[in-house]
Model the fold of this input.
Amino acid sequence: MAAMSAGSGKNVRTVLKKTAQRLVYCLCARSEEELLKQIEGKMTVSFDVFDTVVKRDVTRPKDVFALIESRLREGTEPCVEHFYAQRVEAERAARQTNHGREVALEEIYRQIPVSDEQRLELMQLECQTEIEVSRPNIPIKHVYDACVQQGKKILFISDMYLPSNVIWQILWKNGYNTGHLYVSCEAGRTKRDGRLFTYVQKAEDLTIDGWLHIGDAIPGDFLSPKRLGIKTLLINRYLRYE
Done:
């Protein structure tokens, strides 16, 4: 009974959290037309990457791991048993070890008991799969194109474990070929705690008044930069565009 009660409590918290998130999106998320108006007068526009400028062609980010597991089963090499479960647990363990700091992909895969050669192959497969399932988020691509046409400084800022060279391949594939990229796992700072925004401000010598950030994560892209005085615009991560 105690276990059932704990499980029920966790389910209730999850439902409440998702309900609260959807309410915030309903109240605060901006449309493409609103975004295009808001970029006027701003010298610098920064974008989150995943679920903002690009979408994954899967229902949930973790579905990428399920796709990898399926490909491993179909391959000629011996597959890693229960890859999906091992990959999810490996990331949880790596994050716990790093105490809130964004982990790198290699740190995650060190948690999976495979040979060095197989670890490298799995990392390459995950990176290639991420590139393949990515596609542009059309309304945000329109906003990006407007920023390019207006000669604004463009930045991409991502809390992510993938290396920057892979994220650049994702951006290039989807038509984003102008701007500077900052990734939390390489900078050693995150958007969520605000330190990555401070790092970018110093690196790019930005003025807060001239800077606009656009993203989908309520803590990392909306609340955190807002606390630093950065103009922020939230988009609804649950909307999907064909």
